[in-house]
Each structure stands twice: as C-alpha cells, then as structure tokens.
Amino acid sequence: MMKVFPLCLLVSITLTVVTANLEGDVLYSLKRTLSDPNNMLQTWDPTLVSPCTWFHVTCNSDNRVTRLDLGNSNLSGQLVPELGKLEHLQYLELYENNIEGVIPPELGNLTNLVSLGLYNNNISGTIPPSLGNLKSLVFLRLNNNRLTGPIPKELVNLRNLKVLDISNNNLCGTIPTSGPFEHIPLNNFENNPRLEGPELLGLVPYDTNCS
C-alpha cells in the first residue's frame, strides 16, 4: 500500500532540498574560481543534495550553511559575489591564503555574519560600504592585504563589533572616532601610509575623497 505524506511535509522537504542545492551551487561557484593545490575542496561534490557533508563546511539543524572554514589552505583565486546568498552564514574564514581581487559588496547581505576573516591575503580594492549592514558582526579582520581607499563611514554603525584589524594595507583618510572605533586600539590601523589617526588631527572632517 502506497504511503501518503501530508502536503505540508512534502513542501518542507522540497524547500529544504532546494535551499541546500542553492547553497551547494554557491559554494561550488567559489570552488570553480579557486586554485586548490592541496585538494582542500576535494569533497565539494555538486552532485550531492546538500553541502553539509563537505569538509570545511558547517551547517545548522536545518541544513543551512553557517560556517566556512578555509583558513591557511593555500588557496588562490578570487571571492565570488554569490557568497552573499548564504543568508545563514555566521563565520567566513578565508585568512592566510593567496586570494586576490576585491571584497564583493554582496557580502553585505550576510546579516547573520559574526566573523569575517580575510587577513593575510592579496585582496585589493576598497572596503565595501555594504559591510556596514552586518549588524551581527563581532570580528572583522582585513589586515595584511592591499586594500585602498578610506575606511567606510558606514562601519561606525556596527555596534556589536569588538575586534577590527585593518593594519598593513594602503588605506587613506582618517580613522573614525564614533561607534566601535572608540575602543579599537590604534595599532590595529598601523602601516597604512596614508591613513591618519584622529589623535594627530583633532576634529578633522572625515575624508571621503582619498583614493
């Protein structure tokens, strides 16, 4: 006798599978852009229903991706805008690799993100103002890259931010003094030749014209 499942259960199962496939597609698009000489992404098989069995990927009880841990993995290549679709992601850790290109503005869609670790790479371009949308962010580490431009004033709205390190880049302008910047040590801004500390300038208007 054929079993009959409630419609609501079938819909729930279908949505879970579709969502898992979407997140798997996002991660596989990242894999395709990266060079992976140590085969850290070998288990990232796009034919599987869910990426939750892939190494370096963590999911919650609803099979939604919450962590991506690929620090110190000898990866090179670029980040992809599709990462902004991982709406439940809390930890994006890609530090100590050889990643180039820019920080996709789409990362500003990751409103559940707690930690963004991109330090010790070769990332260039500017810090996207959209990162100011990450209201849950506690850790932002972008140090030791090749970032240029000013510190986006939108970052002063990150009230939960406790750790910020953007040292050893080529940022310019002045350091904000409000919001979380009141408590960030000045050495977390050092070795940016054109970035000027507020203790040297007094009440200087925020410089958005540096390049």
CATH architectural name: Alpha-Beta Horseshoe
Q: Low-confidence spans: pLDDT under 50, at least 5 residues?
A: 8-19, 200-207
- Please describe the biggest sheet, giving its number of strands, its sense, and whether it closes into a barrel: 6 strands, mixed
Please count the helical segments. 2
Number of strands: 12
CATH superfamily: Ribonuclease Inhibitor
The share of residues in extended strands comes to: 15-25%
CATH class placement: Alpha Beta
Q: Helix coverage percent of residues?
A: 10-25%
Going across the biggest sheet, name each strand in turn.
Answer: 2-3-5-7-8-10
Radius of gyration: 20 Å
Alpha-beta classification = alpha/beta
Q: Report the end-to-end length measured between terminal Cα atoms.
A: 71 Å
What does this structure look like?
- The structure is a single chain.
- The protein is an alpha/beta fold and 211 residues long.
- The chain has helices spanning 7-33, 198-201; strands spanning 34-35, 57-59, 65-69, 76-78, 91-93, 98-100, 115-117, 139-141, 148-149, 163-165, 170-174, 194-196.
- It has a six-stranded mixed sheet with strand order 2-3-5-7-8-10, with no helix packed on it. A three-stranded mixed sheet has the order 1-4-6.
- A hairpin with a 5-residue loop joins strand 2 (57-59) and strand 3.
- It is globular, with a radius of gyration of 20 Å.
- The model is unreliable at 8-19 and 200-207 (pLDDT under 50).
